[in-house]
Protein 1
Amino acid sequence: MHLTKIRLWAGVCLSAAAICLLIAGCKRKAQEESGGAEQSKKVVIQNIGSDTMVNLAQAWAEFYAKTEPMVSVEVSGGGSGVGVAALINGTAEIANCSRKLEPEEVAKAKSQGKDPKEFLVGFDGLAVYVHKDNPLSQISLEELAEIYREGGKINKWSEVGVSAIPGSKSNDIIRVSRQNNSGTYQYFRETVVGKKADFKQGSLDMNGSKDVVELVSKTPGAIGYSGLGYATAAVKILKISAKRGEGGVQPSIASVHDKTYPLSRPLFMYTPGEPSAQVKRYIDWIVAEPGQKIVEQTGYVPLPKN
Amino acid sequence: MEQEVLNLPEGAVPGPSKAPGARSIVRARKRPVWEIGFEVGLEWLIRLCGISAILFVFGIFAFVFREGAAFLFSSRFSLVKFLFTTEWYPTSMSNIRYGVLALIVGTGSVTILAMAIAVPFGLGAAIFISEFCTGRLKEILKIIIELLAAIPSVVWGFIGISIMNPLIQTVFSVPVGLNVFNGATLLALMSVPIMVSIGEDSLKAVPDSFREAALAMGATRWQTIVRVLLPAAKNGLLAAVLLGIGRAVGETMAVLMATGHAVKIPHSIFDPVRTLTATIAAELGEASVGSDHYQVLFIVGILLFTITFVVNLSADLIVRGVRKG
């Protein structure tokens, strides 16, 4: 009898707890829904996309929140592809993209009834990084292609004129690359490795722009490519020339604008169709003076003034 | 009573109906209808919890299979090329190749090395806790080892990048610290707790009469352990190792961060590799839904599922053997 009673009580307690939880859950959901209706007060702009641009986009969002407290821009990364997917799904008001939209992506967006609008918001110089102790100071696109291309012939530092790197016993070039669907990977393949070529296998494929710089900074024999904005004191940025033996060009605002630096690319923001008034104001602010100043401060290249 | 509830045959109704005394008392009290209905409802809820695991497993398998099936059976996909070539170029503009041999070897090499490190430590710890330890030390050790299992894998990965990486570079003077050895060490540390707790249980399950008999024969402690206890508990210990392997094969975050993520067949334990799990984690996010690349990643998932399923199933069968024996 005693047991039955205990069981009964346990059952009652359990179910009471379950019901409480259920009610609490419903209540919260209801609150969230009503919260959605009250959103007219504070505008939230979802901004998803390129990892290359995520630092920049966050800086924009932070500064914009100071000038426009009623607008909150929520930034997340994931890659250009993720941003475009979010744009098509309708989960992002603005997609950051470190490349132009691909024709298939435009077609897919159109099939969903969306007509992406493009806004040029700045430039990114893609820098080639080596360890700070590496005596190399410049490299040509030809040599980079031989290092990174499948079947390319350069595998040792001695083949680009570096006999020894302090702190590294091996002469092998350790290639640091990106995961194969990042926008940076695709851009580097297109401009350096070759449009129809593939990367040499065995590179260390990092999942973020920052990880590339971090790994290069800790690995004396490494070479890697990443956004100019990710430079730290522990890595060295190489000058780039088109051909072997030519004078290299240091990535800078001027060399990106006059297109003498070969590894620079435009940064875009896309909206699904005509932007709403708030989004339009945000983008206008970005391409104007205050936004472009932040571009420069975060290590990217602002739009030319004209 | 408790026993009866635990081993309830399917379809049987527990509680009052089984205990005649209780039933008559309930009758006398005139149980209200809602109370009975409530109890039946609760019983079904609990039953649903019990079988939900089966639903989830089959549901997940069906989902993974459905996502990859269209491409798996299409003419563009060759299973032989998939399994036996090393070229993994899912996003190539000119020549798309889906070969996962290097990834399988990557997963295999990290797992084998991890087990080579973890098995001696894990089983050693299990023997120590079960046979040499008593009282407080035993409890403390068990708690601390279980704590090891509570560390999230991303934290392990972080340790791999920030502590193990420079350590391996300086100690072994190798160019890259993110490699098989780094990943395997982390996986070993992650699978030791599983091995210890299951290994210790199976050693505890060996009847004391075995130990007493060995002592009576004049066996030393070492002889007792090696010749009596280990053979007697071997099934349980094997299951412990297999579950550790299952954990190591399926682990993602730590190996993604610590192995260097390079598609290549390693020539030494200090070469970077890439595992099947890490490939899915790194690429699925940006593969557009429904594309060939997306489906191939699901086929990689099916492959992984098959590997872990076989490992876990054999562990389970072995444990069953222990219970019978």
Note: Residues 29-39 of chain A have pLDDT under 50 and may be disordered.
Protein 2
Amino acid sequence: MSATLPGSASGPDRAPASTDEVERQLERTWRPDPGLLGWLRSVDHKSIGLRYVVTAFVFFLLGGIEAAVMRAQLARPEARILGPDAYNQFFTMHGTTMMFLFAVPVMDAMGIYLVPLMIGARNVAFPKLNAYGYWVYLFGGAFLYLMFFLNTGPDAGWFSYVPLAGLQFSPSKRVDVWAQTITFTEIAALVAAVEIIVTVFKNRAPGMTLHRMPLLVWAMLVQSFMVLFAMPWIATASQFLAMDRLVKTHFFTPATGGDVLLWQHLFWFFGHPEVYLILLPALGFVSAIVATFTRRPVYGYPAMVLSLIATAFLGFGLWVHHMFATGLPALGESFFTAASMMIAIPSGIQIFCWIATIWAGRPRFTVPLLFVIGFILVFVIGGLSGVMVASVPLDQVVHDTYFVVAHFHYVLIGGAVFPLFAAFYYWFPKVTGRMLGEPLGRWHFWLFFLGVNLTFFPMHQLGLDGMPRRVYTYLAETGWGDLNLLASGGAALIAVSVAIFLVNVAVSLRAGSLAGDDPWGADTLEWATSSPPPPYNFAVIPKVSSPYATWDEDDRATDPQRLERGDFVLETGHLTPGTTPVDGHMDEILAMPEESPWPVTLAFVATLGTAFVLANHLILAAAMAALAAAVLVAWHSAEPEAA
Amino acid sequence: MSPWWQAHSALHPNGAQLSLIIDRLWSPMFAAAAAIFALVAGALGWALLRRRAAAEAPDDPGRERGMRWTVSLATACTVAVLLVLLGLDISVSRATTAAPGRDALRVVVTGHQWWWEIRYGGVVTANEIHVPVGRTVVLELRSNDVIHSVWPISLSPKLDEIPGKNNSLSLRAERPGVFRGQCAEYCGHQHAKMAFLVVAEAPGSFERWLQGQRELAAPPADDLARHGQQVFLSSCAACHTVAGTPASGRAGPDLTHLAGRATIAAGTLANTRGNLAGWILDPQTIKPGAYMPPIPLAPADLHAVVAYLETLR
Amino acid sequence: MTMARGVALLAVAGVLLGCQDHAPARPVPGGDPSAGKQLLAERGCGSCHTIPGVSGANGLVGPPLDHFARRTYIAGEVINNADFLVRWIEVPQAIEPGTAMPNLGITEGQARSMAAYLYTLH
């Protein structure tokens, strides 16, 4: 895939051409093929990233609809909207959708779109693999929903505890569907992690040392390392479960020598880092937005980076706090209490640094900043209830009750969804070239903030009043009806606020005010190119000599001059510079592949193969495996020419 | 509407362990959380809204020093608060996991999908745990099938029943009363309707109850009850046990002393004639997915078996 | 929209939502509908009957009791009026010998209240 040019970075000797002609040539080289086939074959990170974000948001809406129906069912005691079988599928699908199909993928997708732009690259390191990651994710999620609509959706909870999820107590295909389709999301996440890590280490604009990387890029990099260490465990666990169910192994069956708790250890060793996979990129969004809308760099860059890294390491040492009610030895549990409390420290440091930044800067109350304010307030509440459940005795009171439901929705909605909406309002102009409407954005924010608090705050009380999780109904005599009705009312508000957002998007796509390159006056490189960016991102690879590249007027002034000179334009093919991992010195020119049909084909064949395995047509499944091998050969046979 | 239990809020504890947790852990943590949130919100509000001069020097070293000092102080305070909370947690944790002592009463609680089997030595009952006030009771937690969790909500924290693992949960009721508990680990279709009652009574009253539970079922005294026993033996004995009769089924709860219990179907319905009739005839409408099938009975048989069950005190 | 219009809409909504326990067209002397609603729940009537407004009353063993005020017969045996209904609730076997509906030991006063509630179901 790569080709090294000896000596100069400015391409083979040629007669100087006008900058217009150079840009036209870049456009011709990088422009995607038109039509549906072109779209299916695209390997452009922006095209993949955008559809990835949209797909993840569709899953968010589906998960939200599941939640809305659940809240309708729980609004009154003994309601009859959903019977127990349907409700159990709904809450399983809600958790699985939000955690596996929305929260991690949307963060990965934002990274795939933004990271190359922020580091001055033209694409991710492995564009075809990137496309494959998206298609695998889409097909896996679509397959799960197809099964759900066929009444074969999983119903053992998003964390699928054995023995309930074992063959004896869940004899139908539902749990098998779960175990197999989450594998698709794991593959997609691992692909995105590999892309981010290699792209960040190898494709930065020359001059961008690690210390000059934007905080969002750091957040994505740290998160990607976490993915590499966390995802294999859920893959292992789900495959063990699939094997116990399909070929009668005994990993988890105590009667035949297996261990029920083994599942919980394996799952939560992945499951706890999973929430930090979701949180870390969101913290990166917040840093980008706070800097722009306080008109100064985020205070304490080294502390911010170290906090991200500390959170990542600590995040792997907390998993047993999900098992405090299983009767593990008290001494061991205390270790996890200490770690679970300690992780509040790096998060706290980040919040203190942001508040300091706001204090020292000059805030502009745009909608992105409003959502960041909402993030701080909601996430801190979630963090405080988190310190409470970190304590073993207290957790043994509230574990598996609505108190915990309140806690994790506060940290997840506060820590991920608020920053995500902030990010949507912030980067929508860059992606589409138009601004989202501010008045509608304010309605969206206030209704969402009010709705989230109305829905989830009463749940703290409900849990302490005895309401357990995962119940399809409750008796009127429990007295839980009033707070549940209030929570359901809050959920309706959330739905209205999201509808307002969708209206805002639809209207702004057609009639929003034009954004220009840099409507906000921001400091990162994506704002130094047009909105939307051209297919090649930058006509000339930007020169970087400071951490706030777009605020560095000297560097940006040299870009047009370097474009004239043909310095780092690389217009003779799909070319992008390769740089050293730490110091960002250019050391090679990399040739990127063109569009390819093989990623989508391989993803489709893999999905078919899985469907055949689930349906027990093992010969057809083997045929799909052989076909996949053939597709892989074709994939690698069409490598880009040396430039 | 008056429920058949008295209390089920963890914030109004009736058990010794839970009182300790609420007083020495929950209350300080809640106060600390409220204070910290107010501080953070206040700091954020001040940072956003403070009056600013028209133009401030971007790199004022004095201001940078002040920011470093403030962030460091805030971090140090965070560490200090967390250490204090950790200390509280460890001390309460040690108090609540202290060994129960030799005079503790041991009760085996086995979770089934979706009811509770309760054993005091040779005495078997279901869905209702009687305990003497003021004496430590150790619940030996077992599972017949999947993971359940015993949560005596206002008496003690919860602990899971895990197949292949022997957990123990201590509780000591501080006052008499009827206290609701709930299964707290998703265990399938009817996890939502798997409750239990803890009846705390004076020690003498408890001993009388236990003695009564040891006795076999009294033989039916009149024709209606005798007819009912015949219906029971043909329609119910495959799954239920009534000690002293040929009925020895183990799939469902032991019914030897059913009439003395306050609820049926694991805390789902009050134990009244109307509910008993409806439950026997059509359990699937009340608790869909439960393993008890509908038992359609001719009206005369229905009245008889209900009358018989009402004699099982 | 204006304040006044908003208030009016809320008022209409409130009236429509509140239209559940209005005065019975057939009052039962000595019967209190809200006490009757509670008694229907407490005595377990819902385990066999589906009764609108009574939480958890979803039973299919006996006939549903929706629109009870408009039904012509009780148990297909007698005209649906207050006296027969109260008697039926107290001692079903007196109205229909051999009926599956058990005698729940309900006093006359309690039966009047339960009948009063049933007659709010139009």
Note: The domain at 223-309 of chain B is CATH 2.60.40.420 (Immunoglobulin-like).
